[in-house]
Amino acid sequence: xxxxxxxxxxxxxxxxxxLGLLSGGRFAYQxxxxxxxxxxxxxxxxxxxEAVIFSEKNQTVVxxxxxxxxxxxxxxxxxxxxxxxxxxxxxDIEDRRNEYLxxxxxxxxxxLEEAAVRGNLTEMQALLNENLAQxxxxxxxVEVDEQNLYLQLQAGDHYLYEIVxxxxxxxxxxxxxxxxxxx
Length: 183
Known about the structure:
Blueprint: H1 8-43, E1 48-56, E2 59-66, H2 72-80, E3 89-94, H3 99-118, H4 121-133, E4 139-144, E5 148-155, E6 158-165, E7 177-181
């Protein structure tokens, strides 16, 4: 085959232009067709103070700062309805925890983790009632659904949200992944 009649500069230029158009199209689709509308719908949700969306390690991270909520479970359900129905995202919930709330979480974490594995929810509730009754909290709540245990602790302007995945649910296919974090 005679390659002398092909102009290498035109080939390289065509390749670069095609790559640029494809990359630009993908960026525009992500930004204006997926990320932008998702960010707007999250921002319009009353429980969301701020939402940041970015890509990390082939996953879309949806980082949400929640304000004080009356039900963490209902808030997470409301938020996840807005997210894409694939498993390519991580929902990272930011709260306003302090050392006191973090210590209470650490002291009571084993009860929640055990209940998530063994399903002894009544024992967990009794232990939390006993432990948290003496704590200096404005309120606390633990909620349960098929997938998770939801714990929220509130003291003054600070609040802690933790979500523990139930063990039996790990064998099913969850939609996405939820993490909680420090603000």
